Amino acid sequence: MSAALEVRKLTRRFGDFVAVNEASFEVRRGEILGFIGPNGAGKTTTMRVCATLDLPDEGDVLIDGVSVMERPREVRQRLGFMPDSYGAYVHTTITEYLDFFARSYGLRGKDRARMLAYVKDFTGLGPLEGKLMTALSKGMKQRLCLAKTLLHDPALLILDEPAAGLDPHARVELRELVKALAGLGKAVMISSHILSELSQICTSVAVIEAGEIRASGTVEQVVRMARTHHQQVFLRALAPLEEVQKCLFESPGVEAVRPEKDGVVFDFAGEEDDLARLLRRLVERGLAPVEFAPKATNLEDVFLELTAGRVQ
Ligand SMILES: Nc1ncnc2c1ncn2[C@@H]1O[C@H](COP(=O)(O)OP(=O)(O)O)[C@@H](O)[C@H]1O
Ligand SMILES: [Mg+2]
């Protein structure tokens, strides 16, 4: 089965400036892809192309196998896009707002009533339905925008920084809504420049920086990749420190050895079996290792290492 969203070597330039450079990644049904990168990395630009609001200079985006360039109208039926900012309509209640968009999606009669009731219920807006849009809190406005995005029951949701500006409580609620949507079998792409907002819910990630995808795949794949690339290990041995350091310096994959507490910490580049070989070597040389602990790598470490907080 084709991916719900497949971004293929997408490039978007503004004049000479390359905002997105040959980005490729995909999102499957039921998956929540965290699209993570610092401000100016190219997240919104990428999402706008996916949502048919902009065209790529090179490459393509396929939604359920349908190209955004060749059949944008068909694509729009299948996706819901929540932009990073949107205005509030004056003198318009929640119900009026949703009804307006449901009509423009072509929903009629009972179908429209059923869908309105469903999205209001799903987002918890039911009790507020008569309220004016201008009177809503940021969190409630976000919910309303999400409700609107769900009206035509899209299989793919593209949410651009939906948690920005929400208080911690509203953030938790938003996460629950996103999880529930993935549970319904929808594919969700959600962006943020703050990884911790997404790390608890996303099942896969694409890390973007300066327009380039630095890593993508399931959370496990990305963490494993980064670990292979570089990890820190704490070692404590009974042999004198100099001997331990000497052995480490001679071992392949070991970089930057430094004393820490009653042992040493070193950087290691290699696979897990390389690490096992190193431990065996320490034992065979009679250095008596008593603690050998790779520091746990998590998504936050990977993100920091990949992006180094650079801003474009
Ligand atoms: N319409 C545009 N014209 C010129 N430059 C743009 C335009 N849109 C975005 N950019 C630039 O492209 C880069 C990526 O922007 P954007 O995709 O909005 O990043 P993000 O959403 O990750 O913060 C930024 O440097 C931004 O200034
Ligand atoms: Mg943005």
How would you portray this structure in words?
It is elongated, with a radius of gyration of 24 Å. The strands form 3 sheets. A 6-stranded mixed β-sheet has the order 6-7-8-3-9-10, sandwiched between helices. A 4-stranded antiparallel β-sheet has the order 2-1-4-5, with helices on one face. Strands 12-13-11-14 form a 4-stranded antiparallel β-sheet. The chain has 2 domains: 5-218, P-loop containing nucleotide triphosphate hydrolases (Rossmann fold, 3-Layer(aba) Sandwich); 230-304, 2-Layer Sandwich (Alpha-Beta Plaits), CATH 3.30.70. A hairpin with a 2-residue loop joins strand 4 (58-63) and strand 5. 36% of the residues lie in helices and 28% in strands. Helix 3 (94-104) crosses helix 4. With 312 residues, it is α/β, with parallel strands linked by helices. The protein contains 10 helices and 14 strands. The model has no long low-confidence stretch (mean pLDDT 91). Bound molecules: adenosine-5'-diphosphate and magnesium ion. Residues 14, 17, 19, 37, 39-45, 312 line the site of adenosine-5'-diphosphate.
List the defining traits of the structure above.
Rossmann fold, six-stranded mixed sheet, alpha/beta, single chain, binds adenosine-5'-diphosphate, Alpha-Beta Plaits, 10 helices, 312 residues, four-stranded antiparallel sheet, binds magnesium ion, elongated, 2 domains
